[in-house]
Design goal:
It is a single chain. Helix content is 7%, strand content 51%. It has 628 residues and is mostly beta strands. The strands form eleven sheets. Strands 22-32-31-25-28-27 form a six-stranded mixed sheet, with no helix packed on it. The chain has a five-stranded mixed sheet with strand order 4-11-10-6-8, with no helix packed on it. Strand 37 and strand 38 form a beta hairpin.
Length: 628
């Protein structure tokens, strides 16, 4: 048969034996092509099929993954070829030298020589310690958003600061440029630093003092400051920053009134030098360093501008004599109540390897919150009411006469706090109890090389405020604005109105979030008729629960003592029922106060008893027994 002839094949199509016969479908049978061209096509098809055969599939996938990785790497390489970190520059321009405390301008130049932009760019400046902004605040870092830095571009930013330090001190400024190239997802950072030197100070400060001190022992410092400029300095301010364990005792000349650490100098002439003699007591653990910081400057447009600053460190040495002062039952954050009895315990110990002789132990009652008549010494010691001082000696305590190495002793005393806490003005709020203990001897072993050995300890507690609530009732209302009506004594099914008063007295601390609550009995109606002069307060009544609430944002210290009592007056109505004949109905149930002490943080509470229709506070004594 020739290549163009066809063969026909008969095909029977049916659904089963019952299917009626159909005409056979005749299809041409095509003879496969032959020849080199068609053999190559068959070979290619067989090769492609073999690539994805079960046997060759892993190798094929590996080749595909490798090819994709090569494409990604090539694309990144092409992208990065347009960006190089070496084409990004950041340079800090600073003066070669400055004067301490003077305003200095720092300039940071940056450039992008790449063929792509840098987006989300930030300029970060890291400053050394004692760097201050133009408004006098200490700063450690500034961060500026530069947005997008265009390709082949440059820019600069200026920063104004004041650097404070000693003459000859070097300061290091670091600038960092953070950014992301537009064609790369990673972020990069370029940085550079510059150093400048403080070559002059307006006010030179020196501190001479105790390099080492025994905990509780007296520490002395001589602070000298000198005008190094060619002009007078007007309005100079000197401020000392004490360690938290430093107790100020005295200074010559004395500091500014109502402070113990600020000296205001009207004028310090050019070349003039002045000194301050400072005396205090340092406490701490052996090996600790205690800091005294001295700051000189002036106020300009309500901004304190520093000239110079010096820090002096004193090392706490081992103490040959130990002293402790504690309060029975006190926690670390000590808080006590007015009228409370305080029991103090003083313990002492010889921590040296030689005996200590002729010791004197004292306790100083420092402020007027104590009832001095209540002091109990247990027949040991003497209280001097002229100096408010308790003294114990070897005649009272044998260990004070001779205290052998590692030997210890103790004494106790008690004292009661005044109630209410004493207040003569609003400034007398936020009161503390303060007791200071001291032990010492002038008979000092030669090895200590000091004329007197003296150790002190202080102990203080915050005094809680007191919140007192009182509820009173009237038929014959004494204040103007509300008038009561109805039969007296009250009669069945007839309405009689009464006025009730809530009154609050507060002690020595401000109170906040104050609420007074009570519930009106059944048969008593709330008339929503009330008056108060207390600002920042609201009263609420719930008709379903019959609960009455008076809320006050803040009550100042001294309300009821140096300020008028806080009070609200409100009216209620009594309509007695027949089953109440012969009884005295209750007008308001027990009332409860709750408030937060702003100084000590505790929650205060108080209550006031119920008030019935007999209204005992009414001076005209109206009859409250229900009649027919």
């Amino acid at each position: 048969m020739s290549e163009n002839e066809f063969k026909f094949k008969e095909v029977n199509i049916g659904t089963g034996p019952e299917t009626s016969p159909k005409q056979p479908e005749i299809k041409p049978e095509i003879k496969p092509e032959t020849g080199p061209q068609f053999d190559n096509q068959k070979s290619k098809k067989r090769g492609l099929i073999n690539l994805f055969s079960k046997k060759n599939l892993p190798k094929t996938l590996a080749v595909v993954v490798l090819f994709a990785a090569v494409v990604v790497v090539l694309s990144l390489a092409i992208g990065r070829s347009a960006f190089n970190t070496e084409n990004v520059k950041v340079i800090v321009q600073v003066p070669s030298s400055i004067s301490s405390g003077d305003e200095t301008t720092l300039r940071v130049d940056y450039s992008n020589e790449n063929r792509v932009a840098l987006k989300d760019a930030y300029l970060v400046i890291d400053y050394p310690s004692n760097t201050f902004s133009s408004d006098g605040k200490e700063i450690f870092q500034e961060r500026k958003d530069l947005g997008t830095i265009a390709k082949k571009s440059q820019g600069s930013e200026e920063f104004k600061v004041r650097l404070v330090g000693d003459k000859g001190e070097s300061k290091n400024i670091t600038a960092k440029l953070e950014y992301q190239p537009q064609n790369i997802s990673s972020r990069f950072e370029n940085s550079s630093s510059s150093r400048l030197e403080i070559n002059s100070v307006a006010v030179a400060i020196t501190v001479d003092g105790s390099e080492k001190a025994i905990s509780g022992q007296e520490a002395n410092y001589l602070i000298t400051f000198e005008n190094k400029t060619e002009e007078d300095i007007v309005g100079l301010k000197l401020e000392l920053v004490y360690d938290k364990d430093f107790k100020f005792e005295s200074a010559e000349p004395a500091p500014q009134e109502e402070t113990n650490n600020v000296w205001q100098i009207d004028a310090l002439k050019k070349g003039e030098k002045r000194s301050i003699n400072l005396v205090g007591y340092l406490n701490g653990n052996e090996g600790e360093s205690k800091s005294l910081k001295v700051i000189a400057g002036r106020t300009e447009n309500d901004i304190f501008i520093q000239y110079s600053q010096v820090e002096y460190l004193t090392l706490i040495s081992p103490s040959p004599l130990l002293l402790s002062l504690t309060l029975k039952g006190a926690e670390e954050d000590c808080k006590v109540n007015p009228g409370e009895i305080l029991k103090y315990n003083l313990e002492f110990k010889n921590n040296a390897d030689v005996p200590l002789r002729e010791l004197i132990l004292k306790a100083y009652i420092k402020n007027n919150v104590f009832n001095l008549r209540s002091i109990q010494l247990g027949d040991v010691g003497f209280f001097d009411s002229r100096e408010n001082t308790i003294t114990w000696s070897g005649g009272d305590i044998p260990e004070l006469k001779l205290l052998e190495p590692n030997q210890s002793g103790s004494v106790t005393f008690s004292i009661t706090l005044k109630k209410p806490a004493p207040m003569s003005s609003y400034k007398d709020k936020n009161l503390l109890t303060l007791v200071s203990a001291e032990i010492g001897t002038k008979t000092v072993p030669a090895k200590f090389a000091v004329p007197e050995l003296k150790i002190t300890k202080d102990f203080s507690c915050k005094i809680n405020s007191t919140a007192d609530l009182k509820t009173t009732g009237y038929y014959y209302e004494p204040s103007a604005g509300i008038t009561n009506s109805g039969p007296i004594p009250p009669k069945v099914d007839q309405a009689t109105t009464y006025t009730l008063h809530w009154q609050i007295v507060n002690g020595s601390n401000d109170l906040e979030n104050v609420s007074i609550r009570s519930v009106l009995p059944q048969g008593i109606d709330w008339l929503n008729n009330y008056k108060t002069k207390v600002t920042g307060s609201q009263i609420f009544y719930n008709e379903r629960t019959k609960e009455l609430v008076w809320q006050i944002d803040k009550i100042p210290a001294g309300v009821g003592y140096i300020f008028p009592v806080y009070e609200i007056v409100f009216q209620v109505r009594l309509t007695p029922s027949v089953n109440q004949i012969g009884t005295v109905p209750v007008l308001i149930n027990e009332s409860f106060l709750e408030a937060k002490d702003s100084f000590t943080g505790i929650t205060l509470s108080d209550s006031a008893p119920l008030v019935n229709a007999s209204v005992p506070d009414d001076p005209r004594n109206p009859d409250g027994v229900v009649r027919q």
